[in-house]
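Good morning C.,

I know you're traveling, so I'll keep this short. The sequence:
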Amino acid sequence: MINQLLSLYSPHYPKILVYMLQASEYKIGPYIAWLHRTKNFNTVSERRTLNLTKPARLLLSALGLGILAQIFAGLLLIYLGIWHHLAGGIVFGVAVLISYPLLWPYLLLIPLLLGRALVDIPTETRAAHQTQDALAQHKSIKIAVTGSYGKTTMKELLLTVLGEGFTVAATPGNKNVTKSHAQFVKGLTGKEDILVIEYGEGAPGDVARFAQITSPTHAVITGLAPAHLDKYKTLAAAGKDIFSVADYLKGEQVYVHGDENVQPFLKKSYKVFDEHSALGWRVSDVTVSLGGTSFNMTKGKTTLKLKSGLIGAHQVAYLSFVAALSRELGMSDEDIKNGIAKTMPFEHRMQPYRLHGAWIIDDTYNGNLEGIRAGTRLLKTLPARRKLYVTPGLVDQGEETEKVHKIIGKLIADAKPDMVVLMQNSVTKYIQEGLKGYKGEIVLEPKPLDFYTNLAQFVAEGDLVLMQNDWPDNYS
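The tokens, ready to paste straight into the viewer:
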């Protein structure tokens, strides 16, 4: 109790508040919910720290000045109370002096709201109009990429492979909202043959709005899985939003990764691909190792023998589709082979590396149920002296939270790792329920950062460790 109280008066308290707002993506509802469930503010920043961006610096400065002003006012009132022998003045001054930790978490929202109303909304509206005008005049193939998972991977594959035969530009990193689309468009030369634009799907209506702004000629839907269900509430609602890009294109030039969840949304005009076939090509002879993935594609009398640096059979669906689309757009077989050969694991997305003779597969970038399926499947197929699976579970699963995490437990158990390490949080109990019947060792880790920092002491030569998903500080 004393430590909790003292944490409110820590010199780091202002920085912690701004960090909480930043980690909540400056969304007021999640920030306030985090405030209300936090007991000790010194334990808030366990996985990350404040990124001193310009908005963060401005908020931190405003908060610091406000707190200093309140402390000065409190001390002044106490001084005046003592000087004039006013007991009430002393009490009021003490109240002003010690109440700042209770007031400023909420007063901090005032500059945020003012900035949003006076700067962000007008700027975003203007950026949307400028982007819409610029892309309407850009005479290129414009490929929209959206879905619950795999968007950035698909975008980077399209950029890498199509880049062997065309001048291609793609939105950078995971920048997939109106503001980042506008920045991307500003950097275009106008001479690009193909633009690849990733769409985020944070809330209902996003994808339809992005389509209106960016005028795509083609759309790739990477799949549908429980994600962002805190905003969409149901998987069906997420699917409706994601498939709104297909409505924009009137069902033409729409390519869909055929996972089981997309079935209710499919129409005859959509071109469906999976790890067995893509745009009329048959996929066979898939071989997976920690060095990459190879496979063959056959159509009529033509066979393409392809090798990628990506690992996992689940990558074949995307790779074969990109190869097939590249050929459909006129690329040569040789350029396609060269492009596929250049595809390598992306940071924190099924990224393998060696550690003291052990193999670590880092798949800690966000996460979703389909990613868990792919990861546990990969773990099951790869050989190792000892296999370890590490996860905190998934965030933003909404009403599906319990169901999804029980499924995760079953998927882990089916992969039969020798050890399962669960980062303790609110969903751990559901994963454990799904793990019933699992015969290996289960380790509950209360301090994730300590585990990841000391991973080298935890593994031995010949081990294979798969680490999936992340659990930000703003989730309990």
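Safe travels,
E.
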